[in-house]
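Kindly inspect this today.
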Amino acid sequence: MNAAPPVATTITLLGGESTGKSALGQALQQHLNEVLHIPTVLVPEQLRHWCETMGRAPQAQEQAARAAEQTQHIETATRQHGVELVIADTTALVVAAYSELYFNDRSLLPSARAEQQRYGLTLLMGLDLPWVADDLFRDSPAVREATDAVLRRELQIAGVRYQTIYGKGPARLQQALRAIGGHLGRPLLVDDPALHRGRGRWICDSCSDPDCEHRLFSQLLSTESSRSTPP
C-alpha cells in the first residue's frame, strides 16, 4: 500500500477588513518561494472573490457555503504534491465572525473554531495600518475593530495560540517570517534585527497575552518614531 503524501503546514492570516492580510499573504508567498526556496502556495480569500464575481455581499443563508469554500480550498492546497507551506488569506473563522456581526448569527462559530484548531500557525493582523475604503468590500474602521474583537474572543475559546503581526511593508513581512520560523523550528531571517537589540530571536509562546502584545507594539512605535525623527 502506498503511503499517503505528506500534508503541508498551514499558516493562517486572520483579521478584519483593511488589516493587510492579502498584501502580507502575497509578500510571504513570494519571499518563501523565490528567496528561501520553500515550496509555498497562497490560498486567496474566497469571500472576496465571490463578492467580486457576484457584485454583492453574501446574504445570511449564503455564509455557510462561503466558509466551507474557504476551508475546502485550504484543504486542497495542503495536499498538493511538493508543497511545504500553505498561506491561507483568512479562514472560515473570519466568515463566521462576519456572520455574527452582520446577521447576528453565531451558528458558524463552533465548526469554524474546530477548523482553526487544525491549522499549524495562526497570525492575527494588528490594527496599526490605516483603514482604507474599498467600495463594496469594506464597511468602516468600527467594523474592523469589532471583527478583531470577535476573532480574539473565538481564538481564546478555541484555545488556539496566535501571534499578532504589526508593522508596515518589510517590517510586517519580517515579523511574520520570524513567527513562521519559530513555528517551523528554523530561522527564516538571516539578519534578524532582534539580534542587534540584544534580545535574541523573538519567539513568543504566549502572544495572545495582551501585555506581551502591548510591549511589542510599543517597541515598534518607538522604533518607527526614532527613524522618522531628524538628527
Q: What stands out?
A: Confidence is low (pLDDT under 50) at residues 194-211, 223-231. The chain has nine helices and five strands.
